[in-house]
Amino acid sequence: MTTPVAAGGLAGHLDGFVRAVREAGIPVGISQAVDAAEILTVVDLLDREQLRHGLAAVLLQRAAQRPTYDVLFDLWWPLSDRPPAASDGEGTDGSPDDEAGESTLDVPGSDDADLAALMRERLLRLLLDGDEEALRRFAREAVELLGRGQPSPSGQSYFSYRVLRALSPDTLVSQLLAGLLAEGDRGGLGEQVARQTIRERLSALRSAIESEVRRRTAAEKGRDKVAKNAVRPLVDQVDFLRAQSTDLAELRRAVAPLARRLAVRLSARRRLGREGRLDFRKTVRASLGTGGVPVVTHHRPRKVHKPELVVLCDVSGSVAGFSHFTLMLTQALREHFTGVRAFAFVDTTDEVTRFFKPGADVVDAIARIGREADVVGFDGHSDYGTAFEVFADRWASAVGPKTSLLVLGDGRTNYRQPGLPVLADLVRRSRSAHWLNPEPRRLWGSGDSAANRYGEVIDMVECRNAAQLSEFVTTL
Fold first, then answer.
1. Where is this region: Disordered (predicted)?
2. pLDDT tens for residues 75-87?
């Protein structure tokens, strides 16, 4: 059940929610906002999950947006402060749990250790039962009893880590397995299913605890402030250079479709470019049938070549996250280009195309580059000037009139020679050349960055996240 909102303020409440969704990076247009208002007239406002799914159906375009949406929904449409009537002797006296702070555990004089032990026993029963609503009620009570921090002038604070530390739900796995499995099911498919069920229920418990902490914090400090800190950036807005391990899989899924989009654009260009120069004789001959008027023109056929791609990528530690995903793009583009040649460098350059054979695992290929490729020649710090010179000396024929050159790196030279003349010559000999830089544009030219100088001889593009990489692919 959601917290009641006065009828007169419902429209304003929805407007605030839509604004928060938009500010979180989810594009919401006027028509979608109107549809959201229409949803309020057709769903049961007392059915919180029905409202959640109804608004999601009109506000979201991609599944990746759902986690962000759910966090905001829980802040703007929280559970009612008054828990539903309990059964089996586990209820309260009906007073709001936030105000009274009463527990369904009547343990006079018990200390924190005793209380935590009793709640662990109750948690074990709830996890075995799998009742999601009961688990959410338990999470609310656990936050009230175990999650309180030291009072401060700004109000009472609650912390999810205090609750999880006191309950230690991960230590209940063996007891849960014993309760879910029969005697002869150990080691087989039944145990795998049971372990997956336990993981899902423990994840639901953590989510319920975190949601309750956010709800209480929002009541103290305001929804807008909590939303800014609680909502993680959407996957396509996560900076490559700051991506955490939990973001890697989602980012890989976001980068993969970019190659297909680029392939479609290249295919369209090839179709449109099949007609060459005007064939004057055929055009005049055809015009004789229309009184000399060239109604239909004829062109000489043009031999269409698939473009070639050369990728020159900085794989030093400072841009490791960025090179990871751009090399993924390189791998995916191989089937759409006549020849994809990949070169990696730190303070010298080596060709790494051999690591990106069709069907190769990209993560494994990138790991092999670090182990086997000859990319470090001196001290392991980026040296763009030397890297460009080595590339031009050893693979001069790699760049030609049909070649698209793609340079990936932050352009930080460690105050060494940037190698501008060599890069300018490569750009001049290529069909097209672009440089993707994972640093914000405002930092170009600061410190040891030569990005502004490189930008004078090559098209320098800011590419900090998957959204900007997608925009680059679209305009390439």
1. 84-110
2. 888 766 444 343 3
